Amino acid sequence: MSYSNDASAGPRGRPRDAELERRITATVLGILAENGYEGVSFEAVARRCRTSKATLYRRWASKRDMVIAAVKAGPARRTSAPLPRGATLREDLLILARRLERTMAAADSGAALMLLQAGLEDPELCDAIEESVGPTGARLPQPVIDAAITRGELPAGARPFAFEEIVGAVLLLRRVNGLAVDDDYLAVLVDTVIIPALVASAGTTDLPAGIFSGRLRARSTHHTRENP
């Protein structure tokens, strides 16, 4: 059994030049790493690739589509296969964490960080990436929680906040700081942090969305102005 995903999303038309396609997607990731999601535009990509905006528009309807194509060709190119299902919650969590580590390892740290920021600026981008390139490992699928509840590993009402808030952020921070992430580290993270937190989540009301959930609310505090 594996996690299902919708791989129907794609570019508007078939690329005519594979090398140009590779240069475009590499350029998108480069601009993303340097200038963030806001810095990615058809004009900026066309200028750096020495091609026309019309060439880009023939392939992608929007900036979001172009970024998804770059992720699919870059960080997600070796991690788009369906995820297997484990026999226990612990196995499922380790499978997801390993997939996410491989996804992040395939990207420049700057690009990975800026891609996270892009997801915060454009919440639908997170959903679109998961749907088009397959599970990145950043999210805890509901079927995993349901199976764990059925097996008695989690109490009813457990929610994915702990996984989606912690695992991706920790792996990204360790990568940015040049710290190793191996199976022993992931096992400790899952055993001492994630599983206990998932158990505790069943008794907690009004949990926010995790940072990698793709469903974050706009920030609103006494010190910041809420987005219109």
Q: Count up the helices.
A: 10
Low-confidence stretches: 4-15, 218-228
* SSE pattern: HHHHHHHHHH
Assign an overall shape: elongated
Helix content: 55-70%
Please report the distance between the alpha carbons of the first and last residues. Answer: 43 Å
Mean pLDDT: 80
Structural class: mainly alpha
Number of strands: 0
**What about the largest sheet?**
none
Strand content: under 5%
What value does the Rg take, in angstroms?
19 Å
Q: In summary, what is this structure?
A:
With 228 residues, this protein is an all-alpha fold. The protein has ten helices and no strands. It has helices spanning 18-39, 42-49, 53-57, 63-73, 89-105, 109-121, 123-133, 142-151, 161-176, 183-201.
Could you walk me through the main structural features you see in this protein, from its secondary elements to its overall organization?
With 228 residues, the chain is mainly α. The protein has helices at residues 18-39, 42-49, 53-57, 63-73, 89-105, 109-121, 123-133, 142-151, 161-176, 183-201. Mean pLDDT is 80; it is low at 4-15 and 218-228.
